[in-house]
Structures are given as C-alpha cells and as structure tokens.
Amino acid sequence: MSQLTKRAITESFMKLINQVPFDKITVKDIVEDCGVNRNTFYYHYSDIYALLDEILENETKRVLTENLTESSWRDAILESCSFALKNKKGIYHIYNSLSRRKIDAYLYQVMGRIMYDFVKMQAEGLSVKDEDLHLIADFYKCAFVGLILQWLDSGMKQDPEYIVDKIFSYLEGSTRNMLENAVERNDRK
C-alpha cells in the first residue's frame, strides 16, 4: 500500500509539474489530485523538495542501472535526455525555478557516473591512477553537462542522439590518448 501511495503522489506531482511552474505547486494541489490526505503526504515526504529529490534520485538510479554496460554509455546519456523530453514542461518549470540546482545536481551525478565508467573502460590494460581516471572523467562530465545545459537553454530543439553521436565520434581515440599520457607522465616521476 505504501508504494502505491508514493507512486500516486509522484504521478500527481509529475502531472502537475508538466502543467504549472514548480514554485506554484502546493502540497494541497498534490493531495487533491491523487486523493490522499496531507498527513499521508507528510508521512512519506517532508516537503515538495524532498519529493522532487526522490524523483530525481530514482530516475538517476533507473538510468544508471538499466543502461550502464560497457557498450551502452551512449544509451544512458540518451535515456537522460529522453526523460527530459518526455517531461519537457516540467523540466523547464523546475529549471526556471529556485530548484534549478536540483536539475544541475541530477545532471552532474548521472554524467559523473557515466563518464567514470566510460573512462575506466577505456583504461583497460593501462595502469592508470584512480586520481587520473577521476580527473579525465570529470573533464568529460563537465563538458557533457555544459552541452546538456546549453541544449536546455536552447529549448531542446536539437536531436540529442545526433549531438551525442557527433561528440563521441570527435572524441574517438582521445580518451585512450589522455589515459596513455597520464600513465606516461606518472612513469616519468
């Protein structure tokens, strides 16, 4: 029963966020839409921000667990973009509110994990320090989050699949080269 109630609250919130700005949604709006009382809402969430945190955390887990295999980093990035496109109005309502930091944090968390796993895969067979793996992954994470934020700012008009494929075609071989340079510099020390 508890999971059904949480799902009803989440679905109502997602419906509302795709209709009205985040800072205009109240707990009263959510509970009226899903048919639970305020106490039930507060039993599960301390406030609307906690509900949003859980939604983004669950989406992060879903994207990362469903898509991260050695060859599907691309799919994980595209899945994040797909979530944004499916909830375009809601994403903009959050993005243009005081909760923009939550979208930023979500993007950095997802891209951080995807890029670390991608860089680690590229480092196979090399004795790269973990510090270097993280630095290179952070470089890519920041680049991709910057591109995604630019995509959001431009109204999500470009096809994310086109952008991702093009960027990774440009990067082909460069990640391995960066890793080899890191090993070489560490060997010289």
TrEMBL record:
Domain (HTH tetR-type) ranges: 3-63
Residue ranges of the annotated DNA-binding region, renumbered to this chain: 26-45
UniProtKB keywords: DNA-binding
InterPro entries (UniProt xref): Homeodomain-like_sf, HTH-type_Tx_Regulator, HTH_TetR, Tet_transcr_reg_TetR-rel_C_sf, TetR_C_Firmicutes
Claim: DNA-binding is one of the keywords in the record: yes
UniProt protein name: TetR/AcrR family transcriptional regulator
